[in-house]
Amino acid sequence: MAHYQAPPEIAYGSVITLRNRRTAGGLLHSHPHLYPEGTGAQQQQVTTYHHRDDNNKWVIKPARHEIDNSSSPVLVRSGDLVRLEHVNTRRNLHSHYHKAPISRKHRQVTCYGFNGNGDWNDVWSLSVVDGKVGDTVRVLQSSLRFIHNSTECALHSHNKQLPKWGWEQNEVSCDPKPRTADSLWMVEGHENPKLPNATLETFRPSLLQRIVESHVIMAETNNRFKPKENELTSRPWMWPINYRGQVFSAGRDETIRVYLLGNPVIWWACISLVLVFLGMVVFYQGALCRGVQFSPVFNDECRTLSEGGFWLLLGWALHYIPFYLMGRVLYFHHYFPAFLFNAMLAGVVLDFLCRHGAQFVMRMNWLSREIAYSSAYVVVVSVLVGSFCLFYPLSYGMLGPLSSDDKSTMHGLKWLSSWDF
Fold this sequence. Notes:
The chain is α+β, with helices and mostly antiparallel strands. It has helices spanning 200-203, 207-223, 264-289, 296-320, 336-363, 369-396, and strands at 15-20, 27-34, 44-49, 58-62, 81-86, 92-99, 107-112, 124-128, 144-148, 154-161, 170-175, 185-191, 246-249, 258-260.
């Protein structure tokens, strides 16, 4: 991009590449392969492709006549009726009433014709979004919508992949609802020897635009990761309850096996203490609303717990809940950043409970506050160390038979049937 030069405005006869405006969208692409039987008309496939390729190039032409190469170039304007001719195959971008291969409510988009000649279904109405009729089309800057002149649907693409017959490239269709974000395009590449080139500064976006675009591209790219065939994945609801781990290596008998699973005692204690925290906050706020009087010291401690716990709970939620919105493949380890906040919140709540439990013991004259408080922590640490000793082979490597065998070192520790070790 540092040495990018191109004419800033599009004219008839220009060779262009079109990228879908949906961030990380592909380039409009075609190749000589036809749609197979049962997917609509058996005409030339049109897809979007995420790599630069000569099959991404199109010539933009007027709808009703051929280009007069001897005259001065005529700029393309919003509201024009145009045809897009695929450079390598000389067929025109085309649509009709056949259903699209994947998006069955959309219409099929193909390439049709011979040596640039086709029919009226090759005609598209070009409009500059947020512009007015007569505006010129600018490289990288204009958002474009192509409306099919016969069926009034919009040229559309998304992240749905075609099967292997479509080389697993993304589907292009014609959407009867023309005003979706997936129907916006921009001219990315432009070649026209009759027009003067402009330098990069003409096309350079602002710093804020670049920051927003880069982050949205990262999110879109991340969202496209899909599981491999027969790969065991997980869903976000499984993570806080330690429902299923992740196999890193597997084998029989003497082969070392590693299974990524949260320590069940710690995991379940942490999520339980989140629920305890919410219950405590609701109880305390409800008591205040009913006029219950607490000591100033207790009020300060509860206020500190509520405010500090809120930020930790917010950190947990921000690192966990967005995974429910993701379409990408997910694994158990994606929960680990959220678990750090969960564990910190659990520690704060546990400390609060131990301190006030120690005060209760002191009032009953059973033990001094310091002894009760220290005893509680000895019990907690003992449980943590004991649970580590039980489950550490999962992380450091298990030897011998699986847990279902009486001779296994993990026999009796498969507490959930969904665990696979």
